[in-house]
Design goal:
Radius of gyration: 31 Å
Distance between the termini: 68 Å
Domain USP: 313-811
Function: Recognizes and hydrolyzes the peptide bond at the C-terminal Gly of ubiquitin. Involved in the processing of poly-ubiquitin precursors as well as that of ubiquitinated proteins.
Pfam families: UBA (PF00627), UCH (PF00443), zf-UBP (PF02148), zf-UBP_var (PF17807)
Strand content: 15-25%
CATH class of the domain at 6-144: Alpha Beta
Largest sheet: 8 strands, mixed
Catalytic activity: Thiol-dependent hydrolysis of ester, thioester, amide, peptide and isopeptide bonds formed by the C-terminal Gly of ubiquitin (a 76-residue protein attached to proteins as an intracellular targeting signal)
EC number: 3.4.19.12
CATH superfamily of the domain at 6-144: Zinc/RING finger domain, C3HC4 (zinc finger)
Low-confidence stretches: 91-98, 152-159, 285-295, 610-619, 675-681, 726-744
Number of strands: 27
């Protein structure tokens, strides 16, 4: 049979070519199944019907699955440029825009061809001989902004300053003349970080930082005393007045003063003769972000040897995505996740079971990320990937892989993670595990998130001598840090004396002089298990409020134990503070003593409810003071009550930590159940039938509806959040009292010995979880490795005492 010429072949396939509409998402920068791009060796193939992109190793799979033969092939080849191209210093806190960070990106030439599968028949583009439909389709693809770009905006800029509403009618008083130099705080000896109040000309020092550095708060205290609203930072005034740092105290922000020249002239200041000597607030933020050498956590100054190969692939920072990068590097260092998404699942297998659009499928994107991180395909020196000369091992760097599609999928159900703002690594970790659990609800035995899950049991001892046991599931053990257990108290006392002396003299303490508390991890674990008083506990035995004792323990030990150090606390006035503390963490821990054994011989359970039918629970009643303080901060009243109850009214700080960790729980909006027999919920049979029609067992449906107050939507969420219910549904007696230590919560959880080995650390640099930088250190192949976004290297001094999250693996007996 005579072969059809390429143009005739293309014309015969025109029915499988579609001109994209404005609402279509077009992928042209990254393969949906791998991290291949137009710059990869084989380029990228864009399906001209679905507008999904595939690498050279995967485009044939797309043809087999969809039958779409016509693809636009995009190939980019690096241009040769001068090696001494100068780097521009950034003037804006931005990436990818004029004045922002210059990534010194090389330039590329781009070529296009039409490729018809399965024989890879190729026609050049552009060409006037191509059918008009093909030309229109290709033009639309090339002109469109890629879906990857829409979902991942690379530019991140500081908020634009606004004009102050106090500037236009600012009243100025007094006859102060400010000299051009030699400034000093009027209330202390500080000679830097000085602010000129634009109303009365007072020169005072700025705010004190959380770590004791900075000023002594004299400028802000002056505002509180006088109400004079605007101040300008001395040392930032120069001929370019727009760069001056003006702060509005009532607006609590840096602002623009359009009349600044006039306001300065009142105090005899000729701004044209001044030179800039201090950083503005925005410049300090910019300086922090351009200088990622943040001391020990990033092992700054250390000669870190780059590492390449399988399991040593970096992740490109998409803009404040280090919280995700650090967390996912540790997650994919566990056997459970490696096995599920790499060893037991090929890319082709995941693609074949994925929906029509694999970019929105969590299983597909997790498999893609796993193969990207673990295969070693992308863990090469950047020079080897682009074909240029190989540098020395010391200077070699890898590009890393950009987890754009994974971030889009995992963040789709979370309004915060879908932004470009920095996030809390702990909150992301919990959200991630929740999404993985939901995606594996149909086959819970395959769910890798279960390897982190365990059961916590609270034992409440009433003053009547009777007890109650309450269980809950969790993925992390959140630990308070008992500073009074510091092992270096004498050194701390001596340092605090020196610090107080220096501050009285207006001097700062140098970093080398700072002494931080050292608290053993054992003390944090002991603090978790220590008895705790519960005031105003309602005793169903005494039928009155009393004081009870609560102790906590674990009824199961997970394969992987995650310890969260509560370094962020609330000070008076609800001011967040990060504890500047070291935690002495051993390589091996044993938590066997923390196992809870449930109801013991001779113990008597508290009655479930009072005989008169009162619905008071054996759980503590939410403390009104705690609920009120949380509600005043804007939290939902019901959520606040649950937080107080689940932390046994231990205090506002504990309740807030619980609330922040459980805000995304599917049952967070379910009404509080007190478990009274006389108040048992009557379940509508039609609701059960509805859930059964969804494919759930009747026993499961009934349990879920009881747990969610009869709400079908919440019951569905409950089922997805409690996959272990399947295993226990057939044996559970639904009439059993809730205090009889039910086994449902423990069913199917991993369990074993209590000895664990440290294998991962996620550390945080910065004053808040919502800013700063996250880095991971992981024990791989017998050595510690630092994962700092796309930088991967042999760790010389892992910061074991500075972690925010610690990951332990159970040691097999």
């Amino acid at each position: 049979m005579e072969e059809m010429n390429p143009m005739e072949l293309l014309r015969s396939k025109l029915s499988r070519v579609r001109i994209p509409e404005p609402t279509n998402r077009i992928y042209k920068q990254e393969c949906c199944l791998s991290f291949d791009s137009p710059r990869s060796e084989g380029g990228l193939f864009v399906d001209m019907n679905t507008f999904l992109a595939f690498g050279k190793d995967h485009v044939a799979w797309n043809y087999e699955k969809t039958g779409n033969p016509v693809h636009l092939h995009i190939k980019q080849t690096k241009k040769l440029v001068s090696e001494d191209r100068p780097l521009k210093k950034p003037a804006l806190l931005a990436i990818g825009i004029d004045g922002g960070f210059d990534n010194n990106e090389p330039e590329y030439e781009e070529t296009h061809n039409i490729v018809i599968l399965p024989s890879y028949v190729t026609l050049p583009f552009p060409s006037v001989e191509l059918p008009e439909k093909v030309r229109l389709t290709v033009d639309a693809i090339l002109m469109a902004e890629g879906a990857e770009r829409k979902e991942q905006v690379a530019a991140w800029t500081a908020d634009k300053k606004q004009k102050s509403r106090y500037a236009m009618e600012l009243q100025q008083i007094g006859n102060v003349v400010v000299p051009p130099s030699g400034w000093k705080c009027a209330k202390c000896d500080k000679t830097d970080n000085l602010w000129l109040n634009l109303t009365d000309g007072m020169i005072l020092c700025g705010r004190k930082n959380w770590d004791g550095t900075g000023g002594n708060n004299h400028a802000v205290e002056h505002y509180k005393e006088t109400g004079y609203p605007l101040a300008v930072k001395l040392g930032t005034i120069a001929s370019d007045l727009e760069a001056a740092d003006v702060f509005s105290y009532p607006e609590d922000d840096s602002v623009i003063d359009p009349n600044l020249a006039e306001h300065l002239a009142y105090f005899g200041i000729d701004f044209s003769s001044l030179q800039k000597t201090e950083m503005t607030t925005a410049e300090r933020e910019l300086d922090q972000n351009t200088n990622f050498d943040w001391n020990r956590i990033q092992e700054s100054g250390q000669d870190v040897e780059p590492i390449f190969g399988p399991g040593y692939t970096g992740l490109v920072n998409l803009g404040n995505s280090c919280y995700m990068a650090a967390t996912m590097q540790v997650v994919f260092s566990t056997q459970s996740f490696c096995r599920q998404y790499y060893m037991n699942q090929s890319l082709k297998m995941a693609f074949e079971t994925a929906p029509a659009d694999p970019t929105v499928d969590l299983n597909m994107q997790l498999t893609k990320l796993a193969h990207g991180l673990l295969s070693g395909k992308y863990s090469l020196p950047a020079s080897e990937r682009d074909g240029t000369a190989t540098p020395s091992v010391k200077d070699a760097k890898q590009e890393g892989i950009p987890p754009r599609m994974f971030k889009a999928v995992i963040a789709a159900s979370h309004p915060e993670f879908s932004t470009m703002r920095q996030q809390d690594a702990l909150e992301f970790f919990l959200h991630f595990l929740d999404q993985v659990e939901r995606s594996n609800a149909a086959k819970p035995e395959l769910d890798p998130s279960r390897s982190f899950k365990f059961s916590v049991e609270d034992r409440i001892l009433c003053s009547s001598g009777k007890v109650a046991y309450n269980k809950r599931l969790d993925y992390i053990l959140s630990l308070n840090i008992p500073l009074h257990e510091a092992t270096n108290k004498q050194e701390l006392e001596a340092f605090n004396k020196i610090k107080a002396e220096k501050m009285s003299e207006g001097k700062d303490v140098s970093n080398d002089e700072i002494v931080r508390p050292r608290v053993p991890l054992e003390a944090c674990l002991a603090n978790f298990a220590a008895p705790e008083e519960i005031p105003d506990f309602y005793s169903s035995s005494l039928k009155a409020k009393t004081t009870a004792l609560k102790t906590a323990g674990l009824t199961s030990f997970p394969d992987y134990l995650v310890l969260h150090m509560r370094k962020f606390v609330m000070e008076a006035g609800w001011v967040p503070k990060k504890l500047d503390v070291y935690i002495d963490v051993p390589d091996i821990i044993d938590i066997s003593h923390m196992r809870s054994k449930g109801l013991q011989p001779g113990e008597e359970l508290l009655p479930e409810a009072a005989p008169e039918g009162e619905v008071e629970s054996s759980q503590p009643v939410a403390d009104d003071a705690i609920v009120g303080q949380l509600a005043s901060m804007g939290f939902n009243q019901l959520h606040c009550q649950k937080a107080a109850i689940n932390t046994s009214n231990a205090g506002v700080e504990d309740a807030m930590n619980w609330l922040l960790s459980h805000m995304n729980d599917p049952d967070i909006d379910a009404p509080i159940s007190h478990g009274a027999k006389g108040a048992e919920l009557s379940i509508d049979q039609s609701a059960i039938d509805t859930l059964v029609s969804f494919g759930f067992q009747e026993e499961i449906a009934r349990m879920a509806l009881k747990a969610s107050g009869g709400d079908i939507e919440k019951a569905t969420d409950w089922i997805f959040n409690n996959p272990n219910a399947y295993a226990a549904a057939s044996t559970m007696d639904t009439d059993t009292a809730s205090n009889s230590t039910p086994t449902l919560v423990d069913t199917g959880l991993p369990d074993g010995g209590g000895r664990y080995r440290l294998f991962g650390i996620v550390s945080h640099i910065g004053t808040s979880t919502q800013c700063g930088h996250y880095v991971a250190h992981i024990l791989k192949d017998g050595r510690w490795v630092i994962f700092n976004d796309n930088k991967v290297g042999a760790s010389i001094d892992p910061p074991k005492d500075m972690g925010y999250l610690y990951f332990f693996e159970r040691i097999s007996s």
